[in-house]
Amino acid sequence: WMVSERGNSGIFYHVIEQPDKALYWSGPEMQILDNENHPDSDQGMAGNRKAGSLYDLIPADPQNAKPHGEWNQVRIVSDGPRIEHWQNGEMVLSYERWTPEWQEMVAASKFAEHPEFGSAEEGHLALQDHGDVVRFRNLKIRRLNAD
Questions:
Q1: Nearest by Cα to 132 from 43, 31, 64
Q2: How far apart are CA 80 and CA 109, in angstroms?
Q3: 92 and 63 in contact (C-beta within 8 Å)?
Q4: Which of 42, 117, 124, 125 lies in the 20 to 30 Å Cα band around 144?
Q5: 88 pLDDT above the threshold of 90
Q6: What does the angle CA 78 – CA 23 – CA 127 come to, to the nearest 5 degrees?
Q7: Residue 147: is its pLDDT beyond 60?
Q8: From CA 108, how far away is CA 113, in angstroms rounded?
Q9: Mean of the pLDDT values across residues 102-129?
């Protein structure tokens, strides 16, 4: 991905279609952000709204996003309950859904009133539109385990 100056977007996964709710109430989000210039970069806790983070929940570490106008390479690996976010060749976070730790983290977040958040074993992918210029290229979806 490449984002414009002050740009903000995201990649959602395991999204459930709900006619009466926005997709972010069900699908976890890998944040896309111009960390240097977007005000949301300094919001949240411990950098959990910076690029590569599980938005508003887990910060990406290391924070290795390239500046606006440069291409970043990301990979999201979903293997059952285990999720990994990779950014620019490094794993920046991993977590397991449905564990007591997951339940506690979600319960303490803005997603607490949405029991469907992160609950789907399968779901859709979605790209967020905040009206900023964001570019994607070479999108690939691969199944990890062949049946």
A1: 31
A2: 22
A3: yes
A4: 117
A5: yes
A6: 65
A7: no
A8: 10
A9: 95
